[in-house]
Amino acid sequence: MDLQSKIILISGPTASGKSGFAVNLAKKINGEIINADSMQVYKEFKILTARPSIKDQKKIKHHLYGFISIKRKFSTGQWLKYTSKKINEIRKKNKIPILVGGTGLYFKALVDGLVKIPKISAKKRKTVLDLQKKSGQINFYKRLIKLDPKIKKIVNQNDYQRSIRAYEVKKFTRKSLVDWYKDTKPLFMKDVFVKLYIDCSKDLLLERIKLRAKKMLPYGMKEVKKIRGIKIPKTHSSTKIIGVTEIKSLLDKKQDKDQTVEQIVIKTRQYAKRQATWARGQMKSWKTISAQDKNFTLKKLFN
């Protein structure tokens, strides 16, 4: 395989070892790493988002980590714009772009293209948001499927944000999000992508999640203390950062450290499960690599 013309994509559940895998791979193929994790773009949270270490970033050039403030709304479209530019810059240096992260929607946008949906007014979007809050996610999802049966193919019942988006798109454009996807053109030819998925056994993943939660707590507390006075709209993706709400409760003395760690572990496991569900539905064509396999070779990966 001619790797020089390729774009490497590395995904997998949180704590599966994607970042370390990407660094080792980049050393072997003269690559540079681009962030594909929607939480690791925020500069205020290095520890709670498990951003690559300074040591790893010194070994290999990393891009699009910690460059946006949580005060700003950051969309998939903005990420795609920054990323396509970085990919072209890396290629001009005769290096290989390696995208690593756990945000499936980012990878989908890169591979399939970004859906160009007409702008929907804030007032109209609020009516859908209010309906979701009033109905509850389960009932709202039933309403969504009734309104747009096609959406069941791409939106999970528990994904409330995408459910809201799908509902408003169908209601106010009279066209399913599925059909908008079909009409979308990608920025790159699909044959340039080498798609690798890091799989991890449940026991190992849980062990890593627990260890990470315990280690990150002291530093995570410092990060949360620094942003306590900042008002962040609930619609911002940064509100999804696992650990922030839990540590706020700890700082307010509503719970102790053990309870906080336990809650972070539970939420992280749930997130990893959602990522795995997305992968089963959206990443069927990706090559699976075991996280336990320490002796990977280029031939093993790309043939």
Reconstruct the topology from this structure.
Layout: E1 7-11, H1 18-29, E2 31-35, H2 54-59, E3 62-63, H3 76-92, E4 96-100, H4 104-112, H5 122-135, H6 137-147, H7 160-173, H8 177-182, E5 193-199, H9 202-227, H10 244-251, H11 257-282, E6 287-290, H12 298-302
Parallel strand pairs: 1-4, 1-5, 2-3, 2-4, 5-6
Helix pairs in contact: 3-4, 5-6, 5-7, 6-7, 9-10, 9-11, 10-11
Summarize the structure.
With 303 residues, the chain is α/β, with parallel strands linked by helices.
How would you characterize the overall build of this protein?
With 303 residues, this protein is an alpha/beta fold. It has 2 domains: 230 residues, 3-Layer(aba) Sandwich (Rossmann fold), CATH 3.40.50; 61 residues, Orthogonal Bundle (Histone, subunit A). It has 12 helices and 6 strands. It has a 6-stranded parallel beta sheet, with helices on both faces. α2 links the parallel β2 and β3. α5 packs across α6, α9 crosses α10 and α9 crosses α11. The protein is globular, with a radius of gyration of 20 Å. The model has no long low-confidence stretch (mean pLDDT 92).
CATH architecture of the largest domain: 3-Layer(aba) Sandwich
What is the C-alpha radius of gyration, as a whole number of Å?
20 Å
The CATH homologous superfamily of the largest domain is called: P-loop containing nucleotide triphosphate hydrolases
**Shape descriptor:** globular
Could you state the order of secondary-structure elements as H and E? EHEHEHEHHHHHEHHHEH
Number of domains: 2
Strand order of the biggest β-sheet:
3-2-4-1-5-6
Strand content: 5-15%
How would you characterize the largest beta sheet? Answer: 6 strands, parallel
Please report the distance between the alpha carbons of the first and last residues: 7 Å
